[in-house]
Design brief:
- This protein is of the alpha+beta class.
- It contains one helix and eight strands, in the order αββββββββ.
- The protein has a single domain, classed as 3-Layer(bab) Sandwich (minor pseudopilin epsh fold).
- About 35% of the residues lie in helices and about 30% in strands.
Length: about 150
C-alpha cells in the first residue's frame, strides 16, 4: 500500500499534526468568507428595501387615482406608512406603520411623496436609503414615476 501509515491495530489514519494544519486552513478560509457574506447580505437587504419602498410609493399613487383622494407615503425614523386625505390637508393612516429592516436609514429630501387625485406628485422627491456602507436613491418625478439608482 505504499506510504499510508497504519496504527497499532493496522488501520490507516491522519496524524494530529495533519488534522491541526487542515483545521487551521479551514479557519483562515472561514475568516475571509464571513465578512464578505455579511456585506453581501447587507447589499441584498438594501436592494430589497429599495424595491419594497418603490412599490409602496407606486401603490400610493394608484390608490390616489382609484379612490379619488390625496395619498402620501410618510417616512418615520425606522418605519413608513401610507396615508390618505379627502382634501389634501388632513391625512389619516390607511396602512402601516411598517418597520424598516434594522440598520436601514431612509431620508426624504423635500417632502414625503404625495399624490393628488390624478396620480401626479405634488413635487419631485429624492429618497436616500442607506445600510452600512451601501446607499441607494429613489427618485419620484412629478408624473409619479419611481426610479432607483
Amino acid at each position: 500500500m505504499g506510504n499510508i501509515r497504519r496504527n497499532a491495530r493496522g488501520s490507516a489514519g491522519f496524524s494530529v499534526l495533519e488534522l491541526l494544519v487542515v483545521l487551521g486552513l479551514a479557519a483562515v478560509v472561514a475568516s475571509i468568507a464571513v465578512p464578505a457574506t455579511s456585506e453581501l447580505r447587507s447589499v441584498y437587504t438594501l436592494n430589497a428595501t429599495a424595491d419594497q419602498l418603490a412599490l409602496e410609493i407606486s401603490k400610493a399613487r394608484m390608490q390616489a387615482v382609484a379612490r379619488g383622494v390625496f395619498t402620501r407615503v410618510r417616512f418615520g425614523e425606522c418605519s413608513y406608512s401610507l396615508e390618505a386625505s379627502a382634501d389634501g390637508s388632513h391625512y389619516t393612516t390607511t396602512e402601516g406603520p411598517y418597520a424598516l429592516p434594522e440598520g436601514t436609514v431612509v431620508e426624504s429630501e423635500g417632502a414625503n411623496p404625495t399624490f393628488g387625485r390624478t396620480g401626479l406628485a405634488a413635487s419631485p422627491v429624492t429618497i436616500s436609503i442607506g445600510r452600512g456602507h451601501s446607499h441607494k436613491t429613489l427618485l419620484v418625478n412629478v408624473l409619479g414615476r419611481v426610479t432607483a439608482s
